């Protein structure tokens, strides 16, 4: 398996993990204040099953607005083509899926919903310039988050609080974490200066609502006893991300198993909806105990 | 059709609308600060299709706590038996359904979920004294509301923000209103003293989440262009309710049609799940345009 860092035509840094022949493509959007490199182990796991994973870095030290992130994600999607990808990285560009973690989950859903015309301050070029945008065939939200609370949702407001209201018909998988909706409480470092850290994936704007607003076919997996960032690499090289990871309620289980669990769901889902092979997906939905982590509930609404 | 006001053994006033022979029973819980008599037209509509409708009045001028309301609803359920009901009101007590509007919807779900052991200040007798409580066969939420917001939900907290987490297996119908999540804005009377009236059925604690947390079989109907209290009687005899009804965003359509629409859904649902006749229910789910109001979306998750 190869792992490459390449520059897009928009100057963004993209990590590409791939085999040598033609493979389906997964675009992955990182979470808020998390580098794309935080997901290396998870994305390598997915790529090792025969996928080209494109994980753009949307910003450096200073975050950008969500509309700007959606624009950048759209531009990376446009840029994807055999001619611009590195040598021996040959994508099956018609077999393209979309995913994202945390705020990156919202970016992914916003992009799939076509919310690329929102007010964007930083991006000069418009994604609307491209007359034939690529189509996504499936979408996966990894503990997606739409805002700080129901009443504090930044633009674009994709949630409507009406079941199955997402205006898209591609298959959806939503993976939630049980501890994502729990606050860390008082951050230990600031015992003398109480700093109450809110939950990363609050009730009302998290995985549950993303599932509720998705049209069938939609599947849902809740990772019991795990936290919002437990699918990240064990060792985070960025000090900012490292600090942030300590301000989040983690689970007690092995993060390696969590990455295998999340990666396994993603691969089974992609095999089914990009590859037409439903065997692994049916197996995990039919008997979630085969997963390396506890998934409860597991829900699959076929139609 | 008869309409009777009777006293329960707990001293509560109950409106009973019935035919003369044995019929299934529907327990209906009124909304916050709304008298049970506000629903006379809607409940008459339901009763006219062959149901005994029991609509307890949980309190007078001063509201009681939700645990106290749940206790009272449980006590009314215990009290239901042929011997205590008025002459010629003969219930088929094994064919019992539960319903409620607004906060009464939460009362109904809390009762069905067995949340009768919550802290209750006013009720002296315990519903746990009854060794053989009656079982509900189906439940209907009419624009149910679980609290003021996701972070402000009074006990018992029935919502968990996990899909299908309600621990009950009876069939569920949820009827929502499109305008229920909208604030009235500035109340006209208080133009000189701005009073911003919040929505009655806020996002995150309303119909959508009740649907999401219900296990199949569950059906969902959203009444377009109608407000949270548009299924109440046109003429409300209580001044307090009358005032409250002006502080709620209403729809523009005929309230009579709304009552017929909601009543029709309730009757079709009860015919199916209490009577075993699915014809009307299948018809409305298959073609919602047959309803006198616009229902969109209509969702039915069979299993």
UniProtKB/TrEMBL annotation, chains A, B:
GO BP of this protein: chlorophyll catabolic process
Alphabetized Pfam families for the sequence: Chlorophyllase
MF annotations from Gene Ontology: chlorophyllase activity
Superkingdom of the source species: Eukaryota
Alphabetized PANTHER family for the sequence: CHLOROPHYLLASE-1, CHLOROPHYLLASE-2, CHLOROPLASTIC
Protein name according to UniProt: Chlorophyllase
Organism this protein belongs to: Buddleja alternifolia
